[in-house]
Amino acid sequence: THHHHHHHHHKHMSSDPLTTNPDASILDKHTWIFSSEAMKKLPSYVDNISPQEELNYRIDVISFIQALARKLQCVQLTIATSIIFFHRFFMLHSFKSYDRFLIGMTCLFVAGKCEENQVKLSDVIIHGRKIANSSPFNQNYPIPQKDSSQFQDIRLDMLKHERVLLQTLHFELTVNHPYKTLMDSMKVFNQSKDFLQIAWNFVNDSLKTTVCLQYTPVEIASAALMLASVYNGVKLDEGWLESKMKLGMNAERRVHEVCTRICELYAKSKNQKIKEKFKQFMT
Fold first, then answer.
1. Is the pLDDT of residue 28 over 80?
2. Average pLDDT score, the chain
3. By three-state DSSP, how is residue 247 classified?
4. Residue 250 burial (CB count, 10 A)
5. What does the alpha-carbon distance between residue 227 and residue 217 come to, in Å, rounded to a whole number?
6. Distance in angstroms (rounded) separating the CA atoms of residues 205 and 202
7. C-alpha dist (Å) from residue 233 to 29, 136, 193, 283
8. What are the φ/ψ torsions at residue 210 (nearest 5 degrees)?
9. Contact status, residue 75 vs residue 85, Cβ threshold 8 Å
10. Residues 6+ apart with CB under 8 A from 132
11. Rounded CA gap, 256 and 16, in Å?
């Protein structure tokens, strides 16, 4: 039934006002999937931040979130959820309106609660600021003593950021990730554990792009499987997107787009092998 549900969900999406109406920058609150037109009108662009700079801010803070999460020993699901929160937040706000590192810390703090992997606010503040102040982020946050009134002010400020984040997310805190689809798909694909791990890594990499704002978790999981199959030189069964992933007719094109977006990350990579393997996805 799980797959059937996804199929239905996907059908509903393609008739979504967001994907069919070209000027819809309105948000379908339940899916958080935006049209490519909406992606061209990000609040930061309106604020004269260039697309490259906007993307760099995202990539920068994502590696910040990952570093902080490692320090606080968060699980991968918490990290993924916090990164999705971050992408969604700056879909609706400009990078000039909010301090991106403070929002990054807030995303991790809130995601910890959602994924039952709670982190202490004071730890987020102290370690978050230490990491933000160090290379490569080189910020300049004061780190007052824990029992000082300055520290209390910072705590209150973080709680204010938390409210803004929750309102921006419409209190929608349950995030579906491609990981679950990947795990389920392994029951229907006759592939090794190693293959799953490679696909899993591609899902991790996808978090550094904005594909989560334009494609469903099933489409992203499918792209990860497609990349893993190319990477490993294995053929997946004919028609697998429809039969195994229960995706619709135009799925191939959309899944291919996700592959291309993930492969943009490798264009600058020193790893020649990966570039060679993914030639077909490199523009």
1. no
2. 86
3. coil
4. 9
5. 15
6. 5
7. 39, 36, 15, 21
8. -100, 20
9. no
10. 64, 101, 139, 141
11. 21
CA distance 21 to 28: 12
Q: What is the pTM of this model?
A: 0.85
Q: CB atoms < 10 A from the CB of 227, how many?
A: 27
169/191 Cα distance (integer angstroms): 37
Helix (H, G, I), strand (E, B) or coil at 147: coil
222 vs 56: CA distance, rounded Å:
26
| Cis geometry, peptide bond prior to residue 136 (ω within 30 degrees of 0) | yes
For 241-272, how does the pLDDT look when each residue is reduced to its tens digit (9 = 90+)? 877 878 887 888 899 999 999 998 888 777 77
Cα 38 to Cα 18: distance, rounded to the nearest angstrom: 8
Angle at 138 between CA 134 and CA 143, to 5 degrees: 65
Integer Cα distance of 237 and 232 in angstroms: 15
Instruction: Reduce the DSSP state of residue 34 to 3 states and report it.
Output: coil
* Helix spans in the chain (H): 2-14, 17-20, 36-39, 43-46, 51-71, 76-92, 100-114, 121-133, 149-168, 178-188, 193-206, 217-232, 240-243, 251-263, 272-277
Contact present, 35 and 22 (Cβ < 8 Å): yes
Calculate the alpha carbon distances from 180 to 17, 97, 118, 154, 217 in Å: 27, 34, 21, 36, 9
What interhelical angle do 217-232 and 251-263 show, nearest 10?
70
Which residue in 208, 209, 224 sits closest to 256, CA to CA?
A: 224
* Whole-number Å distance between alpha carbons of 18 and 148: 48
Count of other CB atoms within 10 angstroms of residue 218: 26
Buried b (16+ CB within 10 A) or exposed e, 55-90: bebbeebbebbbbbbebbebeebbbbbbbbbbbbbb
